[in-house]
# Entry
Amino acid sequence: MDFLQRLARALDQPFIPWKRLIVGFSIAQYLFESYLSLRQYKVLRATKPPKSLQGVVSQEDYDKSQAYGRAKAKFGAFNNLYSQAQTLGVFYFDILPKLWTLAGILQERYVPARFAGEIPQTLLFFLAYNLLSTLLSTPTSWYSNFVLEEKFGFNKQTPKLFITDLIKQQILTIALGSPILCGFLKIIQVTGNGFFYYLWLFSVVVQIFAITIYPILILPLFNKLSPLEEGKLKTGVEALARKLKFPLNHLYVIDGSKRSSHSNAYFYGLPWKKHIVIYDTLIEENETEEVVAVLAHELGHWSLSHTTKLLGISQFHAFYIFALFSVFINNRSLYRAFGFPGEMPIIIGFLLFSDALAPMDTVVKLFMNILSRKYEFEADAFAVKLGYSTQLARSLIKLQIQNLATMDADWVYASYHFSHPILPERLGALGWYGEKNKELREQMKAHKQDKATVLKAGDREL
# Structure
Protein backbone atom coordinates (compact mmCIF):
# COMPACT_ATOMS: atom_id res chain seq x y z
CA MET A 1 0.00 0.00 0.00
CA ASP A 2 2.77 2.46 0.94
CA PHE A 3 4.61 1.65 -2.29
CA LEU A 4 1.48 2.29 -4.36
CA GLN A 5 0.85 5.62 -2.62
CA ARG A 6 4.46 6.73 -3.15
CA LEU A 7 4.23 5.74 -6.80
CA ALA A 8 0.95 7.66 -7.14
CA ARG A 9 2.58 10.83 -5.75
CA ALA A 10 5.60 10.41 -8.03
CA LEU A 11 3.41 10.13 -11.15
CA ASP A 12 1.12 13.04 -10.27
CA GLN A 13 3.41 15.80 -11.52
CA PRO A 14 2.37 18.75 -13.72
CA PHE A 15 5.50 18.43 -15.89
CA ILE A 16 4.56 14.91 -17.07
CA PRO A 17 3.07 15.30 -20.59
CA TRP A 18 0.38 12.64 -20.17
CA LYS A 19 -1.53 13.47 -23.34
CA ARG A 20 1.53 13.37 -25.54
CA LEU A 21 2.72 10.16 -23.89
CA ILE A 22 -0.59 8.32 -24.34
CA VAL A 23 -1.02 9.57 -27.92
CA GLY A 24 2.57 8.53 -28.60
CA PHE A 25 1.93 5.04 -27.15
CA SER A 26 -1.17 4.68 -29.31
CA ILE A 27 0.60 5.72 -32.53
CA ALA A 28 3.64 3.55 -31.77
CA GLN A 29 1.44 0.50 -31.22
CA TYR A 30 -0.47 1.20 -34.44
CA LEU A 31 2.76 1.51 -36.45
CA PHE A 32 4.21 -1.65 -34.89
CA GLU A 33 1.10 -3.71 -35.66
CA SER A 34 0.95 -2.27 -39.19
CA TYR A 35 4.56 -3.36 -39.72
CA LEU A 36 3.67 -6.88 -38.57
CA SER A 37 0.68 -6.93 -40.94
CA LEU A 38 2.94 -5.99 -43.85
CA ARG A 39 5.24 -8.88 -42.99
CA GLN A 40 2.28 -11.23 -42.92
CA TYR A 41 0.87 -9.88 -46.20
CA LYS A 42 4.08 -10.93 -47.98
CA VAL A 43 3.47 -14.49 -46.76
CA LEU A 44 -0.14 -14.31 -47.97
CA ARG A 45 1.09 -13.55 -51.50
CA ALA A 46 2.89 -16.90 -51.77
CA THR A 47 1.57 -19.14 -54.56
CA LYS A 48 2.65 -22.56 -53.29
CA PRO A 49 1.70 -24.29 -50.03
CA PRO A 50 4.42 -24.96 -47.44
CA LYS A 51 6.29 -28.18 -48.23
CA SER A 52 4.67 -29.98 -45.31
CA LEU A 53 1.21 -29.33 -46.79
CA GLN A 54 1.94 -30.08 -50.44
CA GLY A 55 -0.16 -33.04 -51.49
CA VAL A 56 -2.29 -32.77 -48.34
CA VAL A 57 -3.92 -29.47 -49.21
CA SER A 58 -4.93 -28.97 -52.84
CA GLN A 59 -3.69 -25.97 -54.82
CA GLU A 60 -7.28 -24.77 -55.18
CA ASP A 61 -7.91 -24.82 -51.41
CA TYR A 62 -4.58 -23.13 -50.77
CA ASP A 63 -5.34 -20.37 -53.28
CA LYS A 64 -8.74 -19.75 -51.64
CA SER A 65 -7.14 -19.60 -48.20
CA GLN A 66 -4.53 -17.11 -49.41
CA ALA A 67 -7.15 -14.96 -51.13
CA TYR A 68 -9.29 -14.94 -47.96
CA GLY A 69 -6.24 -14.07 -45.87
CA ARG A 70 -5.32 -11.17 -48.16
CA ALA A 71 -8.90 -9.86 -48.15
CA LYS A 72 -8.99 -9.97 -44.34
CA ALA A 73 -5.57 -8.30 -44.16
CA LYS A 74 -6.68 -5.43 -46.39
CA PHE A 75 -9.87 -4.97 -44.40
CA GLY A 76 -7.88 -5.22 -41.18
CA ALA A 77 -5.51 -2.49 -42.37
CA PHE A 78 -8.44 -0.18 -43.08
CA ASN A 79 -10.19 -1.06 -39.83
CA ASN A 80 -7.04 -0.45 -37.77
CA LEU A 81 -6.54 2.93 -39.45
CA TYR A 82 -10.20 3.76 -38.84
CA SER A 83 -9.89 2.77 -35.15
CA GLN A 84 -6.69 4.78 -34.78
CA ALA A 85 -8.37 7.82 -36.31
CA GLN A 86 -11.22 7.43 -33.80
CA THR A 87 -8.77 7.24 -30.88
CA LEU A 88 -6.88 10.34 -31.99
CA GLY A 89 -10.18 12.12 -32.69
CA VAL A 90 -11.40 11.42 -29.15
CA PHE A 91 -8.19 12.94 -27.75
CA TYR A 92 -7.87 15.86 -30.18
CA PHE A 93 -11.48 17.02 -30.00
CA ASP A 94 -11.82 16.39 -26.24
CA ILE A 95 -14.74 14.00 -26.73
CA LEU A 96 -14.51 12.57 -23.21
CA PRO A 97 -15.02 15.90 -21.36
CA LYS A 98 -17.77 16.84 -23.83
CA LEU A 99 -19.63 13.58 -23.25
CA TRP A 100 -19.18 13.97 -19.48
CA THR A 101 -20.59 17.50 -19.65
CA LEU A 102 -23.52 16.24 -21.74
CA ALA A 103 -24.19 13.54 -19.15
CA GLY A 104 -24.17 16.23 -16.44
CA ILE A 105 -26.70 18.33 -18.37
CA LEU A 106 -28.98 15.33 -18.86
CA GLN A 107 -28.71 14.47 -15.17
CA GLU A 108 -29.59 18.04 -14.15
CA ARG A 109 -32.66 18.03 -16.41
CA TYR A 110 -34.05 14.54 -15.97
CA VAL A 111 -32.69 13.01 -12.75
CA PRO A 112 -34.33 14.04 -9.45
CA ALA A 113 -31.94 15.98 -7.24
CA ARG A 114 -32.02 13.37 -4.45
CA PHE A 115 -30.69 10.72 -6.88
CA ALA A 116 -28.11 12.95 -8.58
CA GLY A 117 -24.40 12.27 -8.18
CA GLU A 118 -21.39 10.72 -9.85
CA ILE A 119 -22.98 7.28 -10.33
CA PRO A 120 -26.10 8.50 -12.24
CA GLN A 121 -23.94 10.84 -14.32
CA THR A 122 -21.55 7.97 -15.07
CA LEU A 123 -24.45 5.79 -16.23
CA LEU A 124 -25.60 8.54 -18.61
CA PHE A 125 -22.00 8.93 -19.83
CA PHE A 126 -21.82 5.16 -20.32
CA LEU A 127 -24.99 5.20 -22.44
CA ALA A 128 -23.74 8.07 -24.59
CA TYR A 129 -20.26 6.55 -24.98
CA ASN A 130 -21.70 3.15 -25.86
CA LEU A 131 -24.09 4.68 -28.42
CA LEU A 132 -21.25 6.60 -30.08
CA SER A 133 -19.02 3.51 -30.17
CA THR A 134 -21.83 1.42 -31.70
CA LEU A 135 -22.56 4.00 -34.39
CA LEU A 136 -18.89 4.14 -35.34
CA SER A 137 -18.34 0.36 -35.37
CA THR A 138 -21.54 -0.75 -37.13
CA PRO A 139 -20.47 0.17 -40.71
CA THR A 140 -17.27 -1.91 -40.51
CA SER A 141 -19.12 -4.78 -38.86
CA TRP A 142 -21.71 -4.69 -41.65
CA TYR A 143 -18.97 -4.73 -44.30
CA SER A 144 -17.17 -7.61 -42.59
CA ASN A 145 -20.31 -9.76 -42.61
CA PHE A 146 -22.11 -8.81 -45.80
CA VAL A 147 -19.17 -8.10 -48.09
CA LEU A 148 -16.02 -9.86 -46.90
CA GLU A 149 -17.51 -13.01 -45.32
CA GLU A 150 -20.25 -13.12 -47.96
CA LYS A 151 -17.69 -13.11 -50.77
CA PHE A 152 -16.03 -16.25 -49.43
CA GLY A 153 -19.27 -18.05 -48.61
CA PHE A 154 -19.11 -17.82 -44.81
CA ASN A 155 -21.86 -15.35 -44.00
CA LYS A 156 -25.26 -16.87 -43.27
CA GLN A 157 -26.75 -13.82 -41.57
CA THR A 158 -29.57 -11.80 -43.05
CA PRO A 159 -29.75 -8.01 -42.60
CA LYS A 160 -32.73 -8.56 -40.32
CA LEU A 161 -30.78 -10.97 -38.10
CA PHE A 162 -27.81 -8.59 -38.03
CA ILE A 163 -29.98 -5.70 -36.83
CA THR A 164 -31.84 -7.91 -34.36
CA ASP A 165 -28.54 -9.13 -32.89
CA LEU A 166 -27.31 -5.55 -32.62
CA ILE A 167 -30.42 -4.49 -30.71
CA LYS A 168 -30.17 -7.49 -28.37
CA GLN A 169 -26.50 -6.75 -27.71
CA GLN A 170 -27.31 -3.15 -26.79
CA ILE A 171 -30.13 -4.21 -24.46
CA LEU A 172 -27.84 -6.74 -22.75
CA THR A 173 -25.02 -4.20 -22.48
CA ILE A 174 -27.32 -1.74 -20.72
CA ALA A 175 -29.21 -4.30 -18.61
CA LEU A 176 -26.09 -6.11 -17.36
CA GLY A 177 -23.47 -3.40 -17.72
CA SER A 178 -25.32 -0.74 -15.72
CA PRO A 179 -25.58 -2.64 -12.38
CA ILE A 180 -22.02 -3.93 -12.75
CA LEU A 181 -20.80 -0.38 -13.37
CA CYS A 182 -22.77 0.87 -10.35
CA GLY A 183 -21.14 -1.80 -8.18
CA PHE A 184 -17.71 -0.91 -9.58
CA LEU A 185 -18.15 2.77 -8.72
CA LYS A 186 -19.74 2.21 -5.30
CA ILE A 187 -16.94 -0.10 -4.17
CA ILE A 188 -14.33 2.49 -5.07
CA GLN A 189 -16.28 5.27 -3.36
CA VAL A 190 -16.76 3.50 -0.02
CA THR A 191 -13.62 1.38 0.45
CA GLY A 192 -10.88 4.00 0.25
CA ASN A 193 -7.31 3.45 -1.02
CA GLY A 194 -7.54 -0.32 -0.69
CA PHE A 195 -10.50 -0.52 -3.06
CA PHE A 196 -8.66 -2.84 -5.45
CA TYR A 197 -8.97 -5.82 -3.05
CA TYR A 198 -12.75 -5.49 -2.98
CA LEU A 199 -12.95 -4.67 -6.68
CA TRP A 200 -11.09 -7.87 -7.49
CA LEU A 201 -13.45 -9.94 -5.32
CA PHE A 202 -16.39 -8.23 -7.00
CA SER A 203 -14.99 -9.16 -10.44
CA VAL A 204 -14.72 -12.83 -9.37
CA VAL A 205 -18.38 -12.83 -8.28
CA VAL A 206 -19.39 -11.20 -11.59
CA GLN A 207 -17.49 -13.87 -13.55
CA ILE A 208 -19.19 -16.72 -11.65
CA PHE A 209 -22.55 -15.03 -12.19
CA ALA A 210 -21.84 -14.65 -15.92
CA ILE A 211 -20.84 -18.32 -16.27
CA THR A 212 -24.08 -19.32 -14.54
CA ILE A 213 -26.53 -17.16 -16.48
CA TYR A 214 -24.85 -17.30 -19.91
CA PRO A 215 -26.33 -20.64 -21.06
CA ILE A 216 -29.68 -19.92 -19.41
CA LEU A 217 -30.42 -16.31 -20.37
CA ILE A 218 -27.89 -14.98 -22.88
CA LEU A 219 -26.99 -17.74 -25.34
CA PRO A 220 -30.63 -18.64 -26.17
CA LEU A 221 -31.17 -15.04 -27.33
CA PHE A 222 -28.73 -15.60 -30.20
CA ASN A 223 -28.51 -19.33 -30.85
CA LYS A 224 -30.43 -22.53 -30.33
CA LEU A 225 -28.87 -25.29 -28.26
CA SER A 226 -30.27 -28.76 -28.93
CA PRO A 227 -29.34 -31.98 -27.14
CA LEU A 228 -27.09 -34.13 -29.32
CA GLU A 229 -29.14 -36.96 -30.81
CA GLU A 230 -28.54 -40.54 -29.82
CA GLY A 231 -25.97 -42.23 -32.02
CA LYS A 232 -22.34 -43.04 -32.54
CA LEU A 233 -21.12 -39.49 -31.91
CA LYS A 234 -22.93 -39.10 -28.61
CA THR A 235 -21.78 -42.52 -27.46
CA GLY A 236 -18.18 -41.72 -28.41
CA VAL A 237 -18.13 -38.34 -26.65
CA GLU A 238 -19.76 -39.71 -23.49
CA ALA A 239 -17.28 -42.60 -23.41
CA LEU A 240 -14.40 -40.14 -23.76
CA ALA A 241 -15.79 -37.98 -20.93
CA ARG A 242 -16.16 -41.03 -18.65
CA LYS A 243 -12.63 -42.17 -19.44
CA LEU A 244 -11.21 -38.77 -18.49
CA LYS A 245 -13.62 -38.33 -15.54
CA PHE A 246 -14.82 -35.11 -17.14
CA PRO A 247 -17.96 -33.88 -15.27
CA LEU A 248 -20.15 -33.80 -18.39
CA ASN A 249 -23.68 -32.63 -17.65
CA HIS A 250 -25.08 -31.82 -21.09
CA LEU A 251 -23.98 -32.43 -24.66
CA TYR A 252 -25.36 -29.84 -27.08
CA VAL A 253 -25.37 -29.00 -30.77
CA ILE A 254 -25.47 -25.28 -31.57
CA ASP A 255 -26.90 -23.85 -34.78
CA GLY A 256 -23.71 -22.03 -35.73
CA SER A 257 -24.73 -22.30 -39.38
CA LYS A 258 -27.41 -19.71 -38.61
CA ARG A 259 -24.75 -17.00 -38.89
CA SER A 260 -21.62 -18.54 -40.36
CA SER A 261 -20.23 -21.70 -41.93
CA HIS A 262 -17.15 -21.60 -39.69
CA SER A 263 -16.76 -24.61 -37.37
CA ASN A 264 -15.88 -24.96 -33.70
CA ALA A 265 -16.47 -26.88 -30.46
CA TYR A 266 -16.02 -25.86 -26.84
CA PHE A 267 -17.01 -26.60 -23.26
CA TYR A 268 -18.10 -24.32 -20.45
CA GLY A 269 -19.54 -24.41 -16.94
CA LEU A 270 -18.59 -24.62 -13.30
CA PRO A 271 -15.85 -27.03 -12.12
CA TRP A 272 -18.35 -29.72 -11.08
CA LYS A 273 -20.82 -29.25 -13.94
CA LYS A 274 -19.57 -28.94 -17.52
CA HIS A 275 -21.37 -28.69 -20.84
CA ILE A 276 -19.96 -29.50 -24.27
CA VAL A 277 -21.16 -27.55 -27.32
CA ILE A 278 -20.51 -28.76 -30.87
CA TYR A 279 -21.23 -26.61 -33.90
CA ASP A 280 -23.59 -28.20 -36.41
CA THR A 281 -21.12 -27.27 -39.16
CA LEU A 282 -18.41 -29.34 -37.47
CA ILE A 283 -20.67 -32.41 -37.38
CA GLU A 284 -21.75 -31.95 -41.00
CA GLU A 285 -18.24 -31.65 -42.42
CA ASN A 286 -16.34 -34.23 -40.35
CA GLU A 287 -16.46 -37.94 -39.66
CA THR A 288 -17.67 -39.02 -36.22
CA GLU A 289 -14.20 -40.09 -35.04
CA GLU A 290 -12.75 -36.76 -36.23
CA VAL A 291 -15.28 -34.81 -34.15
CA VAL A 292 -14.41 -36.99 -31.14
CA ALA A 293 -10.71 -36.29 -31.82
CA VAL A 294 -11.39 -32.53 -31.75
CA LEU A 295 -13.14 -32.95 -28.40
CA ALA A 296 -10.26 -35.11 -27.13
CA HIS A 297 -8.05 -32.09 -27.82
CA GLU A 298 -10.49 -29.74 -26.04
CA LEU A 299 -10.82 -32.03 -23.02
CA GLY A 300 -7.04 -32.27 -23.00
CA HIS A 301 -7.02 -28.61 -22.01
CA TRP A 302 -9.23 -29.49 -19.06
CA SER A 303 -7.34 -32.66 -18.07
CA LEU A 304 -3.96 -30.87 -18.22
CA SER A 305 -5.40 -27.99 -16.10
CA HIS A 306 -4.79 -25.45 -18.86
CA THR A 307 -8.15 -23.78 -18.22
CA THR A 308 -7.43 -23.60 -14.48
CA LYS A 309 -3.95 -22.17 -15.04
CA LEU A 310 -5.24 -19.57 -17.51
CA LEU A 311 -8.01 -18.66 -15.09
CA GLY A 312 -5.42 -18.19 -12.34
CA ILE A 313 -3.29 -16.00 -14.61
CA SER A 314 -6.32 -13.91 -15.62
CA GLN A 315 -7.26 -13.40 -11.95
CA PHE A 316 -3.72 -12.32 -11.10
CA HIS A 317 -3.78 -9.96 -14.08
CA ALA A 318 -7.11 -8.49 -12.98
CA PHE A 319 -5.79 -7.91 -9.44
CA TYR A 320 -2.64 -6.29 -10.80
CA ILE A 321 -4.75 -4.02 -13.09
CA PHE A 322 -6.98 -2.88 -10.23
CA ALA A 323 -3.98 -2.32 -7.92
CA LEU A 324 -2.23 -0.25 -10.57
CA PHE A 325 -5.43 1.69 -11.20
CA SER A 326 -5.28 2.85 -7.57
CA VAL A 327 -2.07 4.65 -8.54
CA PHE A 328 -3.81 6.66 -11.27
CA ILE A 329 -7.33 7.18 -9.92
CA ASN A 330 -6.47 10.48 -8.16
CA ASN A 331 -3.79 11.66 -10.61
CA ARG A 332 -4.81 15.30 -11.12
CA SER A 333 -2.18 15.93 -13.80
CA LEU A 334 -3.59 13.05 -15.89
CA TYR A 335 -7.18 14.32 -15.66
CA ARG A 336 -6.09 17.90 -16.35
CA ALA A 337 -4.19 16.87 -19.49
CA PHE A 338 -7.40 15.46 -20.98
CA GLY A 339 -9.74 18.36 -20.22
CA PHE A 340 -10.79 17.70 -16.62
CA PRO A 341 -9.21 20.56 -14.62
CA GLY A 342 -11.63 20.41 -11.67
CA GLU A 343 -13.31 17.00 -11.72
CA MET A 344 -11.85 13.51 -11.45
CA PRO A 345 -14.64 11.10 -12.52
CA ILE A 346 -13.74 7.50 -11.76
CA ILE A 347 -14.90 6.17 -15.14
CA ILE A 348 -12.77 8.74 -16.99
CA GLY A 349 -9.78 7.83 -14.85
CA PHE A 350 -10.22 4.16 -15.70
CA LEU A 351 -10.49 4.87 -19.46
CA LEU A 352 -7.35 7.03 -19.43
CA PHE A 353 -5.53 4.50 -17.25
CA SER A 354 -6.39 1.78 -19.79
CA ASP A 355 -4.87 3.90 -22.56
CA ALA A 356 -1.75 4.56 -20.50
CA LEU A 357 -1.39 0.82 -19.86
CA ALA A 358 -1.48 -0.11 -23.58
CA PRO A 359 2.30 -0.74 -23.98
CA MET A 360 2.30 -3.14 -21.02
CA ASP A 361 -0.82 -4.88 -22.35
CA THR A 362 1.05 -5.47 -25.61
CA VAL A 363 3.77 -7.35 -23.75
CA VAL A 364 1.17 -9.32 -21.77
CA LYS A 365 -0.59 -10.27 -25.01
CA LEU A 366 2.68 -11.54 -26.50
CA PHE A 367 3.46 -13.79 -23.53
CA MET A 368 -0.14 -15.04 -23.24
CA ASN A 369 -0.09 -16.08 -26.91
CA ILE A 370 3.22 -17.87 -26.43
CA LEU A 371 1.72 -19.76 -23.47
CA SER A 372 -1.49 -20.49 -25.37
CA ARG A 373 0.41 -22.01 -28.32
CA LYS A 374 2.37 -24.18 -25.88
CA TYR A 375 -0.91 -25.42 -24.40
CA GLU A 376 -2.30 -26.18 -27.87
CA PHE A 377 0.67 -28.43 -28.63
CA GLU A 378 0.18 -30.17 -25.28
CA ALA A 379 -3.54 -30.71 -25.94
CA ASP A 380 -2.73 -32.18 -29.35
CA ALA A 381 -0.21 -34.55 -27.74
CA PHE A 382 -2.86 -35.50 -25.18
CA ALA A 383 -5.27 -36.49 -27.98
CA VAL A 384 -2.49 -38.51 -29.64
CA LYS A 385 -1.94 -40.48 -26.40
CA LEU A 386 -5.64 -41.34 -26.45
CA GLY A 387 -5.16 -42.84 -29.93
CA TYR A 388 -6.58 -40.01 -32.07
CA SER A 389 -3.44 -39.05 -34.00
CA THR A 390 -4.81 -39.82 -37.48
CA GLN A 391 -8.32 -38.54 -36.78
CA LEU A 392 -7.01 -35.30 -35.25
CA ALA A 393 -4.66 -34.68 -38.17
CA ARG A 394 -7.50 -35.24 -40.65
CA SER A 395 -9.82 -32.99 -38.68
CA LEU A 396 -7.25 -30.20 -38.40
CA ILE A 397 -6.78 -30.24 -42.17
CA LYS A 398 -10.53 -30.25 -42.80
CA LEU A 399 -11.10 -27.40 -40.34
CA GLN A 400 -8.28 -25.46 -41.96
CA ILE A 401 -9.82 -25.90 -45.40
CA GLN A 402 -13.42 -25.30 -44.28
CA ASN A 403 -12.48 -22.09 -42.42
CA LEU A 404 -9.93 -21.02 -45.07
CA ALA A 405 -7.59 -20.43 -42.14
CA THR A 406 -4.05 -19.16 -42.63
CA MET A 407 -1.80 -22.05 -43.67
CA ASP A 408 1.49 -20.22 -43.20
CA ALA A 409 2.56 -17.17 -41.24
CA ASP A 410 5.42 -14.80 -40.66
CA TRP A 411 7.00 -15.89 -37.39
CA VAL A 412 7.03 -12.41 -35.83
CA TYR A 413 3.39 -11.79 -36.78
CA ALA A 414 2.38 -15.23 -35.50
CA SER A 415 4.24 -14.76 -32.21
CA TYR A 416 2.36 -11.54 -31.53
CA HIS A 417 -1.11 -12.33 -32.90
CA PHE A 418 -1.71 -16.10 -32.94
CA SER A 419 -2.98 -18.00 -29.92
CA HIS A 420 -2.81 -21.28 -31.92
CA PRO A 421 0.10 -22.78 -33.88
CA ILE A 422 -0.29 -22.81 -37.65
CA LEU A 423 -1.24 -26.08 -39.39
CA PRO A 424 2.25 -27.14 -40.58
CA GLU A 425 3.56 -26.79 -37.02
CA ARG A 426 0.72 -28.83 -35.56
CA LEU A 427 1.01 -31.59 -38.17
CA GLY A 428 4.78 -31.70 -37.62
CA ALA A 429 4.26 -32.05 -33.86
CA LEU A 430 1.78 -34.86 -34.54
CA GLY A 431 4.46 -36.63 -36.60
CA TRP A 432 2.68 -36.21 -39.93
CA TYR A 433 5.37 -35.53 -42.51
CA GLY A 434 7.11 -37.37 -45.33
CA GLU A 435 5.79 -40.93 -45.64
CA LYS A 436 3.23 -40.22 -42.94
CA ASN A 437 1.82 -37.42 -45.09
CA LYS A 438 1.39 -39.85 -47.98
CA GLU A 439 -0.59 -42.13 -45.68
CA LEU A 440 -2.69 -39.20 -44.49
CA ARG A 441 -3.23 -38.08 -48.08
CA GLU A 442 -4.55 -41.51 -49.05
CA GLN A 443 -6.87 -41.58 -46.05
CA MET A 444 -8.23 -38.12 -46.88
CA LYS A 445 -8.79 -39.21 -50.46
CA ALA A 446 -10.59 -42.38 -49.35
CA HIS A 447 -12.87 -40.38 -47.03
CA LYS A 448 -13.72 -37.98 -49.87
CA GLN A 449 -14.59 -40.89 -52.12
CA ASP A 450 -16.75 -42.50 -49.41
CA LYS A 451 -18.59 -39.21 -48.88
CA ALA A 452 -19.15 -38.80 -52.62
CA THR A 453 -20.54 -42.35 -52.81
CA VAL A 454 -22.98 -41.61 -49.97
CA LEU A 455 -24.11 -38.40 -51.65
CA LYS A 456 -24.69 -40.17 -54.97
CA ALA A 457 -26.67 -42.88 -53.21
CA GLY A 458 -28.75 -40.19 -51.53
CA ASP A 459 -29.40 -38.57 -54.90
CA ARG A 460 -30.63 -41.86 -56.33
CA GLU A 461 -33.02 -42.27 -53.41
CA LEU A 462 -34.39 -38.79 -54.03
